[in-house]
Amino acid sequence: MKPSVIDPKTTARAAAFDLWMNAPNPMVTFFKKLDVTPLVRFSRKHGLKFNMLLCWCIGKAASGIREFYLLPVGRELLQYDSIAVNTIVKNETGEVSSCDVPFSADLAQFNADYLRLTHEVAESCENHDLTDSMVIGTSAIVDTEIDGAVGMNSGIFNNPFIIWGKYHKGLFRTTLKLSFQFHHTQMDGAHAGRFLARLQETINRI
Q1: What is the Cα–Cα distance from 152 to 124, expressed in whole angstroms?
Q2: CB–CB of 130/81 below 8 Å?
Q3: Of 54, 94, 97, 192, whose CB count within 10 A is highest?
Q4: Helix, strand, coil abundance in the chain, percent, nearest 5
């Protein structure tokens, strides 16, 4: 279902819309270190891709926070009924393409969609975009451990965006540092903090 244009004044984001829609830099970035030991173990035990599992956990954590279903686009505030998680795919030419995967609370279904869609994108070298879902962007720089990254504020792409690098193997735990960028009109720091806490809880319960 296509998103609906809603009146910001009828939402809890009315004040934020007035404050931040015309701001020169309305994007906020949080940095977080996650304990991904359960994901690494689950990935190895069940033969599932670590990146897929993390994308599913991101969608699961976000799906329970209503602010993730809102997105400022242009001068409008859109209301979505569903969420998708974007992943970057290395295609047949050696370049990268973008792939939106619809979120499903069913891990098996999400995994099947992830494998099918990323394979199609890699072969076709064409992006797979879902315009009917609020898309959470992700980018994994898996060859390098990074402390975080700040995304581009283009004024066009206002979607929340998560960037991470290679996870760090410690003596007993495996950790991953990531950055979470969001538009201040969409959510406040408290919402972002709640999302990151839920993300860790989701990883713990995998």
Answers
A1: 27
A2: no
A3: 54
A4: 35, 30, 35
User: How long is the chain?
Assistant: 206
What does the block give as tokens for 73?
């686009």
pLDDT in tens, 48-75: 999 999 999 999 999 999 999 999 988 8
Contact between residue 49 and residue 59 where contact means Cβ atoms under 8 Å apart? no
> Which parts of the chain fold into alpha helices (H)?
14-20, 37-46, 50-63, 107-124, 189-204
Q: Which residues contact 180 (CB under 8 A, 6 or more apart)?
A: 29, 30, 31, 32, 160, 161, 162, 192, 195, 196
DSSP-assigned beta bridge partners for residue 169: 174
| Terminal-to-terminal C-alpha distance of the chain | 29
185 φ/ψ sector (left φ>0, alpha ψ -120 to 50, else beta): alpha
pLDDT digits (tens, 9 = 90+) for 116-149: 999 999 999 999 999 999 999 999 988 888 887 8
